[in-house]
Structure formats: C-alpha cells, structure tokens
Write a structure and sequence with these properties.
Elements lengths: L1 H25 L2 E8 L2 E9 L2 H19 L7 H7 L6 E2 L2 H16 L9 H4 L14 H8 L7 E3 L4 E4 L12 H13 L4 E8 L2 E6 L9 E6 L8 E7 L3 E6 L4 E4 L2 E4 L16 E6 L2 H14 L3 H7 L3 E4 L1
Length: 315
C-alpha cells in the first residue's frame, strides 16, 4: 500500500510540475524592436518559442522590405521604376501578389489609392522638418506620370509599364503585406499569442494572457494628442488594425497643416474634415491599401471597406 501511495504522490507531483511548466511557457513573454521599412517595428510574443519566432519574424520583415522598398536600388520595385516602357520585369511571387492586390484596390477606389503616386510624393518632404510646398508647376508635371492603369501585370510574375516615367510607391501596401507574412511566420512556432506592430499596422493573434476574455485591446490614437491618448479602444480577436492619419507625418506653414496622404487627383494633401481612418480587417495588406483609399474618398469609402469585410473608424 505504501508503494502505491508513493507512486500516486509522485504522479500528483509530476502533474503539478507539468501544469506549472505549461502555465509558465504560456505566459512566457518576449519583446523586441527594430527600425525597418522606415518605421519602428515591435513585437510582443507569448509562448514557448518566443525568441526563435521573434528573430524569424524580423528576418521576414527585412526580406519583404528588400523586395519592395523603392529607395533601395536593388529592390524589385526599383527595377520596375528604372525600366523603360514595355520592358518586362520578372518579379517574385511576393511582389507580384502585392502589386495585383494593390492595383485591384486602385481600380475599386477609382484611383483614390494609386501606387504610381511616387513622382508626386517625391516632391513633398515630410521628414526633414522643412516647411516647403512644391511649386504648382512641378506638381502638375508630376501628375502627368500618375496613373495605376499604366502598370500591367502580364501573368507569370511579369510586370511592365506603359510609360517610361511611371514609378511605383508601395509605401501604403508593403508594410501591410510584411505584417501578414510576419503573422504566417509566427504561426509556425509554439506561441499562444502575440502582437505584431509595424508602425501603425497592428496584427493580433492567439490568446491575450493579460485579458479577461483572451481578446486583445487596441487603442485608436486621438490625432495630434500625446501618444497613448486614445479616441476609443476596440477589442479584436485574430484581426489586423491599420490607421492612416494626418498627424503621423506633416508640416505646418502659414497656419495650415500639410500631411503625407496625397490625393492622386490634385497632387496635394487630401483635404478632409477628419484626421484619421482606421480599418479593422483580416488582411493587413488590404487594410493598408483601404486606409489610404478611404482617407482620400471620405465617407463614401465605407462601402469599399464593406466589400473587403473591413470595419471603418473615422476620427
């Protein structure tokens, strides 16, 4: 009887140790930050393989950036931008998919979102702090090069332009796609949940160990207020939250704010009565494109978001 009792006690202790191990691994927290894609990217992961997952996630973000950064002369987007009209450029599956998805939203938004806006955005400087407005003539000339319909996807991962001067800027799409790919990487590891934040593109997955119901709470920043001042807080479960706002990159001149969200029709910052558009959706790539499109479109853009099963918050 004593032997049986000792065996039972040993089993109970073993079960307790195993349960403690499970709980401790589930709540194991890992955080990391890097500056990639011209923004601060941060992750918070919970689970057993946090560090390995974190390193793999940042490797994947860097890989996507190397393909789609228009300022990197070795990137596939730079190769397209340097190409002559009708010169066919072979690209990766990743770049082709992003171009295909982005061009679809360009069409659906009637050009309110346009990936060929690069000639215009290159005229505006929202980083150095210089409050300089491009000349009307330079904007007018740059607009002649803008038109998403000048980018042709010819199947078999081949891309070509109809105009020499056409240039692609995936600044409002690549971050979203990098987030989606980072999430794919995270799901290959033994993680219970986490947050991937690519400078305003937030993806939440799994269970939140600090929440009452396991869901994640994401705050929508109040424009032009101190970071962490929220207009509202939403609860999400395995979703992405993407915000485009006037308060992120801008300069002020003569009492007027000039922000980085350019209207492809005018070449000037989009003039709306609101300061931010937030999209909650399944795909961060699509949410990224939609946030910019709807900021330019205004209220009528809500119907476009519904088409992609996205929820819209306009502040």
């Amino acid at each position: 009887m004593k032997k049986i009792r000792y065996v039972l006690i040993a089993l109970m202790i073993g079960c307790l140790i195993f349960c403690f191990w499970l709980i401790s691994n589930k709540n194991n927290k890992y955080e990391k930050q890097e500056f990639i894609m011209d923004t601060t990217c941060s992750i918070t992961l919970y689970g057993k393989e946090c560090e390995a997952a974190g390193n793999a996630i940042f490797d994947e973000i860097r890989r996507i950036d190397s393909l789609m950064n228009m300022h990197d002369e070795k990137s596939e987007i730079s190769r397209i931008n340097r190409a002559k009209a009708n010169e066919k450029i072979k690209v990766s599956n990743d770049t082709y998919y992003v171009l295909k998805t982005a061009l679809e939203i360009c069409r659906e938004s009637d050009g309110a979102f346009d990936i060929t806006i690069a000639p215009v955005t290159s005229l505006w400087d929202f980083k150095s702090g210089k409050a300089e407005i491009p000349s009307e003539e330079s904007i007018k000339n740059a607009l002649l090069c803008v038109g998403y319909y000048n980018i042709v996807l010819d199947g078999n991962n081949t891309v070509y332009k109809l105009k020499d001067e056409s240039c692609i800027d995936l600044g409002a799409a690549a971050k979203g796609y990098a987030g989606d790919k980072a999430l794919e990487v995270a799901k290959k590891y033994s993680l219970t949940g986490g947050i991937i934040d690519l400078g305003g593109n937030i993806l939440c997955f799994g269970e939140n160990p600090t929440g009452d119901n396991g869901k994640w709470k994401v705050g929508i920043q109040t424009p032009f207020k101190q970071t962490g001042t929220y207009e509202k807080i939403i609860e999400i479960d395995n979703k992405t939250v993407v915000t485009s706002g006037t308060y992120q990159r801008y300069f002020e001149k003569s009492g007027k704010i000039y922000h980085h969200i350019i209207d492809p029709e005018t070449g000037y910052p989009s003039r709306q009565k609101y300061n931010s558009v937030t999209i909650v959706a399944d795909s961060s790539l699509k949410a990224d494109c939609l946030a910019t499109a709807i900021f330019v479109m205004g209220e009528k853009g809500k119907n476009l978001a519904k088409k992609y099963n996205g929820d819209v918050y306009i502040e």
